[in-house]
Specification:
- By secondary structure, the protein is mainly α.
- It has one domain.
- Helix content is 66%, strand content 0%.
- The chain has 6 helices and no strands.
- Helix 4 packs across helix 5.
């Protein structure tokens, strides 16, 4: 097992914790590049059931969810909200 695989396994394990997942997504949202947030959200989805399970909970096809969370994706607020809810999280707004 390579160091990268061990890190990915560790991260997926940590993302099972809702508090860690929320902080991880909050940190990703600080980046100016939306791809960073989509990558982080995709990792949360993988850790918390996978694309197929989350897509089913959101009433989306696996392909649609995968495209929405890809680096070139542009999910709607409705999709983001559904994905977060399906992973046990929710959107919130805070001041800096």
């Amino acid at each position: 097992m390579t160091i990268n695989n061990r890190h990915e396994d560790w991260l997926l394990d940590q993302l099972m914790d809702p508090g860690f997942a929320a902080e991880y997504l909050n940190a990703a949202s600080e980046d100016d590049d939306p791809k960073t947030y989509l990558t982080a959200l995709r990792q949360v989805v993988e850790a918390r059931g996978g694309i197929a399970v989350v897509a089913h909970k959101c009433n989306l096809s696996k392909e649609s969810l995968y495209r929405s969370l890809s680096a070139r994706g542009n999910p709607t607020i409705k999709t983001l909200s559904a994905v977060l809810k399906a992973t046990g999280l929710r959107m919130a707004v805070a001041t800096h």
